[in-house]
Amino acid sequence: MKQKEKLSDRQLRTIPIILSTPSLTEAGRKANVSRSQLLRWMAEEAFLEELEKTRDQMLEVSLDTLQAGAKEAVETLLRLLKDRHKGIKLKAADRTLFYVLRVKELRDIEARVSLLEKLILSAKEER
């Protein structure tokens, strides 16, 4: 049986409320569920797994939305590099360099992890 099938409709309806509300007390009020009931649910493995799965899905949607605006954000930064105000120009340059270096760092880490994975697989095959 799937974890989702073990949860009640009420639990499934409450999960997005928990994730979009700053406190369990407020989430319980919005979902019409007592805080003590929420705490009991939070002790259940199936509930926690569904909560985490839903959290991951919500994050993916948010990241997709951000990615859709990335091109416009880059174009804005590049436009601001030509601004006549030195403060704006400096901040745009700082942010541009920060993100370029961050992407380079992430690519380097990804390459190193990939190499390590290949080495581990190779070592396992030699055994």
Could you outline the blueprint of secondary structure elements for this entry?
Layout: H1 3-6, H2 9-19, H3 24-31, H4 35-42, H5 45-68, H6 70-80, H7 86-126
Helix pairs in contact: 2-3, 2-5, 3-4, 6-7
Using brief descriptors, characterize the structure shown:
127 residues; mainly alpha; 2 domains; 7 helices
The Rg value, from CA coordinates, equals 23 Å
Low-confidence stretches: none
Specify the number of helices.
7
| Number of strand elements | 0
Share of residues in helices: over 70%
Provide structural commentary:
By secondary structure, the protein is mainly α. It has two domains: 1-68; 71-127, no CATH class. Helices cover 84% and strands 0% of the residues. It contains seven helices and no strands. It has helices at 3-6, 9-19, 24-31, 35-42, 45-68, 70-80, 86-126. α2 packs across α3 and α6 (70-80) crosses α7 (86-126). It starts with a helix and ends with a helix.
Short note summarizing the structure:
The protein is mostly helical.
